[in-house]
Amino acid sequence: MPRRKLDPLPTAAFHILLALAGEDLHGYGIMRAVAGQTDGKVRLGPGTLYGSIKTLLEEKLIEELDERAEDVRRRYYRLTGAGRKLAAREAERLAGMLRAARAKRIFRGAHV
């Protein structure tokens, strides 16, 4: 069986899915949302961003919107149902890893 491109889900792709979970965004908007949701710790460069967007589009996890807002030069993207499900599964996987890290006393944070 061929390996899927997004198995495991790359970190950049997960951040993009999270950014689109709240609203439809264009590329620069996604970059800003990812920086904001990570307190500036993750900054996606154009190559990583658009390469990830291309893969997410191919896998039908996001879709490009036909109707564009005020700026016709920008392409807007939306999370699909499959993308939302994959993001939820990835969040559960990461939560499980965090539980394991707590059990091993590697992580003692109060959040999550």
Description:
With 112 residues, this protein is mainly alpha-helical. The chain has one domain: Orthogonal Bundle (Arc Repressor Mutant, subunit A). It is built from four helices and three strands, in the order αβααββα. A three-stranded antiparallel beta sheet has the order 1-3-2. Helix 1 crosses helix 2 and helix 1 packs across helix 4. 21% of the residues are buried. The mean pLDDT is 89.
The general outline is globular
Mean pLDDT: 89
CATH topology: Arc Repressor Mutant, subunit A
SSE order, one letter for each helix or strand? HEHHEEH
For the largest beta-sheet, the strand count, sense and barrel status come to: 3 strands, antiparallel
Residue stretches low in confidence (pLDDT < 50, at least 5 long) are none
User: Order of strands across the widest beta sheet?
Assistant: 1-3-2
Write the layout of secondary structure elements.
Elements: H1 11-22, E1 25-26, H2 27-37, H3 46-58, E2 62-64, E3 76-79, H4 81-103
Antiparallel strand pairs: 1-3, 2-3
Helix pairs in contact: 1-2, 1-4
Please sum up the structure shown.
This protein has 112 residues and is mainly alpha-helical. The protein contains four helices and three strands; from the N terminus they run H-E-H-H-E-E-H.
